[in-house]
Every structure is written in structure tokens, then in C-alpha cells.
């Protein structure tokens, strides 16, 4: 029974520490959703474009790896054929 009380006290003591003053995140939530300004919108657009370019680079890199894998596999087969006596 005391372990149940200890658990409850442990969880409430952490919440009670910051209850004296509201945190910044609570103040922002109470004010409601803010409309993004031009700087934020520009940053979001730049981030979106950077993410798109990153995905394209990754796709090209993987395609290059696949091409290299196929080329090396063919080269390995040729070497294997040239080493085995007919």
C-alpha cells in the first residue's frame, strides 16, 4: 500500500516544483496559436527546399551504388569465368 502512495507522491512532487510560476510554453499555449511571420515562413520554405534537395541527393547516391553493384557483379562473373578452365 505504501508503494502506491510513494509512486503517487513521486509523480506529484515533480509537478509541484514548477507550479509557482507558469512556464513559457504554458504562456504561449494560453495566448493561442501565433501566425507565423515572414521570417518564419521563409525559414520553413528554405528548410522544405533543403529537405527536398537532400532526398534527391540520397536517391541519386543510392542509384549510383546500385549501378556500381551491378557493374562489379558482372566484373566478378567475368573474372570467375576466366579463371575456371573449360
UniProtKB/TrEMBL annotation:
<protein>
    <recommendedName>
        <fullName>BZIP domain-containing protein</fullName>
    </recommendedName>
</protein>
<keyword id="KW-0805">Transcription regulation</keyword>
<dbReference type="InterPro" id="IPR046347">
    <property type="entry name" value="bZIP_sf"/>
</dbReference>
<dbReference type="InterPro" id="IPR004827">
    <property type="entry name" value="bZIP"/>
</dbReference>
<keyword id="KW-0238">DNA-binding</keyword>
<feature type="domain" description="BZIP">
    <location>
        <begin position="37"/>
        <end position="81"/>
    </location>
</feature>
<comment type="similarity">
    <text>Belongs to the bZIP family.</text>
</comment>
<keyword id="KW-0539">Nucleus</keyword>
<dbReference type="Pfam" id="PF00170">
    <property type="entry name" value="bZIP_1"/>
</dbReference>
<dbReference type="GO" id="GO:0003677">
    <property type="term" value="F:DNA binding"/>
</dbReference>
<feature type="compositionally biased region" description="Low complexity">
    <location>
        <begin position="10"/>
        <end position="25"/>
    </location>
</feature>
<dbReference type="GO" id="GO:0003700">
    <property type="term" value="F:DNA-binding transcription factor activity"/>
</dbReference>
<dbReference type="GO" id="GO:0005634">
    <property type="term" value="C:nucleus"/>
</dbReference>
<keyword id="KW-0804">Transcription</keyword>
<feature type="region of interest" description="Disordered">
    <location>
        <begin position="1"/>
        <end position="56"/>
    </location>
</feature>
